[in-house]
Design the sequence.
């Protein structure tokens, strides 16, 4: 979509459904007029003894016609390609693991149901929320964030091991969180990306949450194409993950000094 204003094809599932209903409504009106022509009274007021089998033939033909038009419309919409996007993992020089450092386990990142299907989300105005049907992430945002956290924490060289919660049990600390927002924000003044992520650190020995922080970051979109929106979301998320990794490292370093 390079060089094309991506705003034009933006449609929500509700707008698509409304368009479909409008088409069906128009077809119904045509059907009613044609039935009126066939019977002289219309479908609802047409007794079978007046119209006889002729009404049934008209009605059956019209239902078939409506079905064909709907199938053709669906085929036209369904033929549009879906574009997939991914988050670029930062190129960092991985430091050697610290044999005396703690073991971190990065657990599940909870997300709202709206973010589970991979469609790129947007907000417009105060209340409108929607998704791009033909622009999607290659992975669910929760998995992308978990993977980024593992790689960033591991590359710091401050820990003995950094692993995903699904790979093994144990560990000294569990990192877990919730993604609240990962979307494009449309305002009359500008377009920007927004990342809102809450994280917490659980001590596996005591079962207590010993650290938590909410990261809320906006970044402008330098353009009006979907590629530029994705680039902004990508960079925005990278910064949030870097800040989170730094925050966890600082807290655990201070924790170790107090012991």
Sequence:
């Amino acid at each position: 979509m390079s060089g094309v204003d991506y705003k034009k094809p933006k449609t929500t599932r509700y707008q698509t459904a409304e368009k479909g209903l409008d088409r069906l409504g128009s077809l119904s009106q045509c059907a009613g007029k044609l039935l009126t022509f066939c019977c002289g009274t219309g479908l609802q007021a047409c007794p079978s003894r007046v119209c006889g089998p002729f009404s049934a033939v008209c009605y059956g033909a019209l239902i078939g016609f409506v079905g064909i038009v709907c199938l053709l419309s669906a085929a036209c919409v369904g033929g549009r390609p879906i574009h997939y996007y991914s988050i670029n993992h930062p190129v960092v020089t991985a430091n050697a693991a610290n044999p005396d450092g703690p073991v971190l386990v990065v657990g599940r990142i909870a997300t709202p149901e709206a973010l589970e299907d991979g469609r790129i989300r947007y907000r417009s105005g105060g209340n409108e929320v929607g998704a791009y049907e033909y622009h999607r992430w290659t992975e669910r945002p929760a998995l992308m964030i978990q993977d980024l956290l593992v790689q960033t924490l591991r590359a710091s060289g401050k820990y003995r091991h950094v692993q995903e919660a699904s790979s093994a049990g144990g560990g000294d600390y569990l990192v877990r969180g919730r993604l609240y927002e990962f979307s494009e924000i449309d305002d009359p003044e500008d377009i920007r990306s927004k990342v809102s992520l809450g994280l917490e650190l659980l001590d596996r020995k005591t079962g207590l949450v010993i650290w938590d922080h909410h990261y809320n970051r906006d970044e402008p979109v330098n353009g009006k194409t979907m590629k530029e929106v994705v680039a902004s979301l990508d960079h925005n998320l990278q910064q949030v993950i870097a800040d989170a990794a730094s925050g966890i490292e600082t807290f655990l370093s201070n924790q170790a000094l107090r012991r």
